[in-house]
Write a structure and sequence with these properties.
The complex is a heterodimer of chains A (392) and B (85). Chain A is an alpha/beta fold. Chain A has helices spanning 11-16, 18-21, 27-36, 48-58, 91-102, 120-125, 137-150, 177-180, 193-196, 201-219, 265-268, 280-284, 291-298, 312-317, 330-333, 354-365, 377-384, and strands at residues 38-42, 62-66, 107-111, 129-132, 154-160, 163-169, 228-233, 238-243, 286-289, 305-308, 326-327, 346-349, 371-374. Chain A has two domains: 37-268, NAD(P)-binding Rossmann-like Domain (Rossmann fold, 3-Layer(aba) Sandwich), CATH 3.40.50.720; 283-384, Rhodanese-like domain (Oxidized Rhodanese, domain 1), CATH 3.40.250. In chain A, helix 14 links the parallel strand 10 (305-308) and strand 11 (326-327). In chain A, helix 4 runs parallel beside helix 5 and helix 4 packs across helix 10. Chain B has a single domain (4-79), classed as Ubiquitin-like (UB roll), CATH 3.10.20. Chain B is built from two helices and five strands, in the order E-H-E-H-E-E-E. Chain B has helices at residues 13-19, 34-42; strands spanning 4-11, 23-29, 56-59, 62-64, 75-79. Chain B is globular and about 45 Å long. The chains are: A alpha/beta (392), B alpha+beta (85). The A-B interface holds A 43, 45-48, 132-137, 140, 157-161, 163-165, 180-186, 189-193, 196, 198, 203, 229, 231, 233, 240-245, 331-332, 334-335 and B 12-14, 17-20, 45-47, 49-50, 52, 54, 56, 58, 61-63, 77, 79-85.
C-alpha cells in the first residue's frame, strides 16, 4: 500500500462508524485503514451499485468509479445506485450524488472513460484494490491483466441469469482470471445481461460479497476468496466453492509469463471483424441488412425467410410473426436445419444482432448460400419501423 | 476385463442454458481423462458440439487440467466464463 499521512477520525466519524469500531477485527486502527484506502470500482452497474454503496458507507477514503454509460430504464431493476429520476443522466453523476448522501466523508473520483489498454495502467495504478463489476469479456481480461502487471488485488464478481461467481485474483500468490479461464468464449456463446437476462437481486448479493472481500483485504483480516471460486445458484440456493491454484504456466501470472504488457482485448475476445485470413470467406458469405431495407424486402414479391433465433420467452414479449418470422432458438438451430428453405434468402434476427450473427455464420457454414444478418435486430425494428412495439 | 467409470457431470450458467440440462451421468472407459469426457460430450452432437474443447473444469470441487484421470463416482463441473455485471 502507498504510504500516506495517517488520517484521524473526528467525533462525527467515531459516531458514524461505531458498529465497526466495536468489532475487534476493525477497531479504530482498521477504520483508519479504510479511510486511508483507495479503491477502484470498474462499472457503476449491477455489481458496481452494492459495491459503491457499501464501500462508501464503510468509509473507504477514496472511491474511484469507472463508467461511461448513461442510466437506462432497464437498469433500475438491479442497479440500485441509480433512481427513476436519473434515467438519461450519466451514471457517474447519479452515483456521485447518491454516494455523497450515503457518506460525505468519502472522496469520490469519477473516470468517465471506456477502460482500455491505453488508459488502464494509469487509472488502476493509483488505487490499492480494484473491484471488477464490468459487463463484458474484453474489459474483464483487461482488468485482470492490468491488476497482475500492477500487483493489485482484483476482487472479481460476475452474474448470469440466476448464477453468480466471485473470487479474488492476483492476490497473495493466488491465481488470476486467466489461470481459470485461459481463453475467452467464442463470441455469441455466452450472452450478456441484456441478451440473457439477470435476476435483479443476484448482482446485489455478488456485489456485496465483492465489497466484503475488498474490506477484508484492506483490513488484512480473515480468509479472502483468493484461490477459491464461489459459484452461486440463486434458483437452487446453492453455493459451491472450487479450489483454484495459480497456474505456473499462465501467460500473465505464471512463472515465465509470455505476456508482459496489455494487449488488444477486443481482438483477443474475437469481437473485431476478422482480418483478411481464413475467416474471411465465412464472413463474406453472409450479408447484412438494416431495418428499413428489411421492411422493403419483406413487402417485395419474393420476401426472404425471416428467422428469429431468440428464446421463446423473448418471442412472447415481441416478435415479427406478422411479417412471417419463424422462431428457432440459437441453441436448437444446428439440429433443426431441415426446417429452413434452401431456395430462398434467409434473414436472421435476434434482440440486437449478436446472436443472429452467430446463427448466420452457422448457416453459411452448413451450406446455406444466401444468408443475411439483420443488424440491430428487433431493437432497430422498434426504433426505425414500429415504435409501438415494446423494447426489452 | 476393461472396467468403466461413471461420472456425474455438472453444467453451469451458459452451458446449462446451451444444453438444456444442469446434470448428466456419463459412462466412460476406465482410464478416461477430463479431456476424454469433454470429447465424449462434444461427440453427442447438436448443442453439445458448441462446448469448448478445453472448458474450465473442476473435479470434486478442485480446478483440474485436461489430462487428469477420472475415477468412478467423480463429480465433474464444467464452468463457463460469465461476464455479466
Amino acid at each position: 500500500m502507498v504510504e500516506r499521512e495517517t488520517p484521524q477520525l473526528d467525533s462525527a466519524e467515531l459516531s458514524r462508524y461505531a458498529r465497526h469500531l466495536s468489532l475487534p477485527e476493525v477497531g479504530k486502527e482498521g477504520q483508519l485503514r479504510l479511510k486511508e484506502a483507495r479503491v477502484l470500482v470498474v462499472g457503476a452497474g449491477g455489481l458496481g451499485s452494492p459495491l459503491a454503496l457499501y464501500l462508501a458507507a464503510a468509509g473507504i477514503g477514496t472511491l474511484g468509479l469507472v463508467d461511461f454509460d448513461e442510466v437506462d430504464a432497464t437498469n433500475l431493476q438491479r442497479q440500485i445506485l441509480h433512481g427513476t429520476k436519473d434515467v438519461g443522466r450519466k451514471k457517474l453523476d447519479s452515483a456521485r450524488e447518491r454516494l455523497a448522501d450515503v457518506n460525505p466523508n468519502v472522496s469520490v473520483v469519477t473516470h468517465d472513460v471506456r477502460l482500455d489498454s491505453s488508459n488502464a495502467l494509469e487509472i488502476l495504478g493509483s488505487y490499492d484494490v480494484v473491484a471488477d463489476g464490468t459487463d463484458n469479456f474484453p474489459t474483464r481480461y483487461l482488468v485482470n491483466d492490468a491488476c497482475v502487471l500492477l500487483g493489485k488485488p482484483n476482487v472479481y464478481g460476475s452474474v448470469f441469469r440466476w448464477e453468480g461467481q466471485a473470487s479474488v485474483f492476483a492476490s497473495d500468490g493466488g491465481p488470476c482470471y486467466r489461470c481459470l479461464f485461459r481463453e475467452p468464449p467464442p463470441p455469441g456463446l455466452v450472452p450478456n445481461c441484456a441478451e440473457g437476462g439477470v435476476l435483479g437481486v443476484l448482482p446485489g448479493i455478488i456485489g456485496s460479497i465483492q465489497a466484503l472481500e475488498v474490506i477484508k483485504l484492506l483490513l488484512g483480516q480473515g480468509n479472502t476468496l483468493s484461490g477459491r471460486l464461489l459459484i452461486f445458484d440463486a434458483l437452487e440456493m446453492n453455493w459451491r466453492e472450487i479450489a483454484v491454484t495459480r497456474n505456473t504456466s499462465c501467460p500473465v501470472c505464471g512463472d515465465e509469463p509470455t505476456q508482459t504488457a496489455l494487449i488488444d482485448y477486443e481482438d483477443f475476445c474475437g469481437l473485431k471483424a476478422p482480418s483478411k485470413g481464413k475467416e474471411q470467406g465465412m464472413e463474406d458469405s453472409i450479408g447484412e441488412v438494416g431495418a428499413v431495407e428489411l421492411k422493403e424486402r419483406l413487402s417485395s414479391a419474393e420476401p426472404p425467410f425471416l428467422l428469429d433465433v431468440r428464446q421463446p420467452h423473448e418471442w412472447d414479449i415481441v416478435n415479427l410473426e406478422t411479417d412471417g418470422a419463424v422462431m428457432i432458438p440459437l441453441a436448437e438451430l444446428q439440429d433443426r436445419l431441415d426446417e429452413l428453405p434452401t431456395d430462398r434468402e434467409i434473414v436472421v434476427y435476434c434482440r440486437t444482432g449478436a446472436r443472429s450473427q452467430s446463427a448466420a455464420l452457422l448457416l453459411a457454414d452448413k451450406g446455406f448460400s444466401s444468408v443475411f444478418n439483420f443488424v440491430g435486430g428487433i431493437h432497430a425494428w422498434v426504433d426505425e419501423i414500429d415504435p409501438s412495439l415494446p423494447k426489452y | 476385463m476393461y472396467g468403466h467409470v461413471e461420472i456425474r457431470t455438472l453444467f453451469f450458467a451458459s452451458y446449462k442454458e446451451l444444453l438444456g440440462t444442469g446434470e448428466l451421468q456419463v459412462d466412460l472407459p476406465e482410464g478416461a481423462t477430463v479431456s476424454d469426457l469433454v470429447s465424449a460430450l462434444r461427440s453427442r452432437g447438436g448443442a453439445f458440439t458448441a462446448l469448448p474443447t478445453e472448458p474450465a473444469v473442476a473435479v470434486n470441487l478442485t480446478y483440474t487440467d485436461p489430462t487428469s484421470l477420472l475415477s468412478d463416482g467423480d463429480e465433474v463441473a464444467l464452468i463457463p466464463p460469465v461476464a455479466g455485471g
